[in-house]
Amino acid sequence: MRRRWGLAVAVTTAALLSACGQTAGPADDGSGGPTPASSAPMSPSDLPTIGTPTAPPTRPTDLMPAGVLAGRVTTLSTTCTEVTTDDAVVWSLSGDPDVAVAVGDTVTVKVVELDPGEEPCGSGVPARIVSLRVVE
Predict the structure, then answer these.
(1) What is the pLDDT of residues 47-67, one digit of tens each?
(2) Residue 121: which domain range?
(3) Separation of alpha carbons 90 and 127, rounded Å
(4) Cα(105)–Cα(135) distance, integer angstroms
């Protein structure tokens, strides 16, 4: 009886171990050969890395939409607001800004071209104010 009991335990143990030890083999894609195994997924502690840049960007990375400029108010009158951008381009903007603006304020301005025959208000690049926002 002991021999049967020992044999039953040994067979059961072997069956369990072989079932637990089985791993999925390569999938069959129908070509007759094994398909490559997928790489192991990254763990949360494995962060992707970006290579070291070799030079500064050649194009601006913060693009402004067409018809929008950003700069500092350099001259202000009742009919003209002059804004100087970071590129040292002076814009002479006609129209009422509809907000309180002072010389030295940093602003973003949506602009359009002047109407045909309309005179520029200053010596800078002429445009008309559509909307102006003071950046704080």
Answers:
(1) 777 888 888 878 777 776 788
(2) 68-135
(3) 11
(4) 8
